[in-house]
Each structure stands twice: as C-alpha cells, then as structure tokens.
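Let us practice reading a record.
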Amino acid sequence: MREAYSAFEYRRARRKVPRAGRYAPDVPDRAIPVRPWWTLRSLLVVIVVIAACGAGTVASAPPPGAGLPAAATGLCDAIAAAPDAVAVERAFANEAHDLLHELAADPRLSRADAELVLQTMQQVEADFRAGAEIGLTTGDLVVLARSADAALAALGITVQPCEG
C-alpha cells in the first residue's frame, strides 16, 4: 500500500466524475457529459461584473440650460485676458465656444436671439483667424457677451455682466 500521493495523483484518485471529453474508467466507450468546472465560475464572474457596472445611483440628466451661464463666464474670462491675444483666443475656445453653440441651439430661444449670438460669434472667430488687433477682438467679444447675456435673459437666466 502506498502512503504518499503527489498533489496531482491525490486529486485524480478523489475525482469520481472525469472532466468533459474524457472517458470514465469504469464505463468503457461512453463519454460522461459533464460541464467544465470553469463554466460556472465564468458565469458567476460575468454576473458580478454586470451587477457592478449597473450598481450605484442613476445619474439624472441636468435640467436644460444648466451649463449655459458658464458661457457668459467664459466670455468674461476671455475679455479679462485682453492684453494677450493667445490667452484671449484660448479662453474663448476652451470656456465659451461650445457653450455659445449650445445656447444658440436651445429650442426655447427665439430665432432672432440665436442668430444674433451666432453672428457676433462668427465675427469674433473671423477676428481670431485674421489675427486682428486685440482692441478690435476685445470689442467684438464685448458685443458677443452682451448678445449672450440678452439671450440668457430671454431664457430666464440672469448672469452678472463682465467687470471692467
């Protein structure tokens, strides 16, 4: 009688049902349909991952126009950076540009207000492309800020006018 088994031999000796695709030693010429051990574990892992992805609170969408006041703030930051043309363009592009498009696309805004915002915005963008004097660009930014403030007021959103 053998007293010591290796780990593999011990597991093999204890196993009563062979793995899928192997023949049972006591039942010749017949495969025992056994699911692989990893199938159940994989299914459990997939369920846990899916549950973790769906867990937590459901984020609700912000109310329409919630980020629009930031457009006016971005324009004020661009005007405040006036001595440096690169800083003015960067502040306009990073902080106000997309929000101004969102403001103009708001369905609650009248067509005339949206057109005014877009036209003054096109003028500012043309100043940046042409490399216009900083004074001209700043003047157009002030006009754009006023038109954006008027559009926001039409939506019922009040913002502080730019200082300076």
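A brief commentary: The chain has six helices and no strands.
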